[in-house]
Amino acid sequence: MAARLEIVSPEGLRVDGRRPAEVRRVLTRTGVLSQADGSAYIEQGNTKCLAAVYGPREPVKRAGVLHDRATINVEYNVSSFSSGERRAKLRRDRKLLEIGLMIKQTFETVVATTSFPRSEIDIYLQILQTDGGAVHTAINAATLALIDAGIPMTDYVCACSAGFVNDQAILDLNFLEESADVPTLTVALLPKSGKISMLGLESRLHIDKLEPVIALASDGCMQMKDTLDEAIRISTRNLAKTVLH
Amino acid sequence: MAPAAAAAAPTPAGNGTSVSAMAVDGDVAAAASQGFSLDPDTFQKIHPAEFHRRFLSQGVRADGRPLQKFRKAKISLGPVSTANGSAMVRLGDTTIICGVKAEVAEPKPAAPRSGFIVPNLDLPPLCSPNYRPGPPSELAQTVSEYMDQVIKSCDLVNPETLCIEPGHAVWVLYVDIVCLNHGGNVVDAAMIALAAALKHTRLPQATYYETESTVRVTDTFTIPLSVKRTLVPVTFGVFDAAVVIADPTAEEEAHLSTTLTYVLDAENGEAAYGVLKSGGSAVPRDMLVACWDDARKRAVDVVAALAEAEQAGNRRPDVAAV
């Protein structure tokens, strides 16, 4: 075990110098793409994600039409140059499809789909660079892009990840930590009600530790909420300025 | 025809004034004389081709550019720090990001010293409302193939410089180009991004170990690629088989009768490495020659933008991507 990377040092610092319960620097922009109805860009540490929202618009395929509400489509895409190892692009990568489905189901509960019957809302997520936490960054970017598109939602969806190592929970794992066998839990939360809408864990974690990890991840989600809220307030203020002048 | 409608000359959208009377044909013109008018946005939606025709007949375009004016290429190097080389290129609204990833592979027996460059253009549904999820579009595949041919034929990078150990190991450079926003003329933006990213590419030091038949590489990317020339693509659109416009936008592209792409060697303005005119309306020969002259002028500007980007962002890993 000596060769293993030290995730949290005896001084209580992580590999990138953060404290266990600290999120990485987050940079947000909205309205970055001219073609999309709504778009957002998020940098969380070195993870970079671009989100575009099209719609509500008329569906191309009749088959997917729901007569009482809008359908939401999510495509989650990872650029082949985004990670250390190049990943050959498979046309139907199951992992990407699964993440897309997970994100789609998360947003179906929050977006006021019944306001737009017989239409579709497309959310396209493109990861440009990964350094851990790609899924939660994508969810946060999608939230911003949906708000930027002016699509009514009952709440924000804020996501963050947390892991458990050396008897303590750590927040917002980077790539080194994720790949060092730290069990990683991704949580998406609706901050107004505090309810959890998505929870993903794909490795072994003792049941007693689940509670503190979820608690820490939820705390991270609330921090993300403040960041997203600030981004939306800034863009709305700018919008108001252009309308008023 | 009512005089009000006949005189309906559009104003470039760029200066912010609106166009008042814009009627279409005889019947609508009659309506215009009765005080009916369309605002420019509506007119563009109903009659997009006519909308552009009116602008072009006045020698100006919907975004305010003169016919032969190109959009400035904005290039930034190194937006993706996980790639061996990367570049982001903007032409107006068109945004393209290109990443080069180097991998070790076995060479072909016929060419034991030759590495590979594999360009691939991706036009994801993210970049335009007209694209839907599914297999890569024909345009994306055609352009990828065309870039591959141009790179090979002009000997952009000598494949033998990508050799690690003859017959055993060579570098493969995967050049993945992703369109983030389709604002027209993706071909130019993609090829400029490719040129910029290759110039920005640094390979790690690689050593081949005969006994284990493995290649070990260093952690740091230090060795620059020797790129022989700067390829500059220049695209023109032809409207109504007669009016040539430089660097068309997405709205204009939809109504062009054909497009013309030249690929120039910028250091040697006399050499073309490719001319692509894939079908569409026929054009007279003097039009081709006139466009070639404009293309050479454009190439100088693009090379200046490339040099500027190289000076500004030389290996700066932390540049925000968007």
Report on the structure:
The complex is a heterodimer of chains A (245) and B (322). By secondary structure, chain A is α+β, with helices and mostly antiparallel strands. Chain A has helices at 94-108, 134-148, 175-178, 207-244, and strands at 26-30, 38-44, 47-57, 71-78, 120-129, 158-165, 168-171, 184-190, 195-201. Chain A has a single domain, classed as Ribosomal Protein S5, domain 2 (2-Layer Sandwich). In chain A, β6 (158-165) and β7 (168-171) form a beta hairpin. The model of chain A has no long low-confidence stretch (mean pLDDT 91). Chain B has 322 residues and is of the alpha+beta class. Chain B has a single domain, classed as Ribosomal Protein S5, domain 2 (2-Layer Sandwich). Chain B has 8 helices and 12 strands. In chain B, the strands form 3 sheets. In chain B, strands 1, 2, 3, 4, 5 and 6 form a 6-stranded mixed sheet that branches. In chain B, strands 10-9-11-12 form a 4-stranded antiparallel sheet, sandwiched between helices. In chain B, a hairpin with a 7-residue loop joins β1 (73-77) and β2. At the A-B interface, β3, β4 and β5 of A face β3 and β6 of B. Chain A: Keywords: Cytoplasm, Exosome. Chain A: Residues 22-152, 155-219 form the Exoribonuclease phosphorolytic domain.
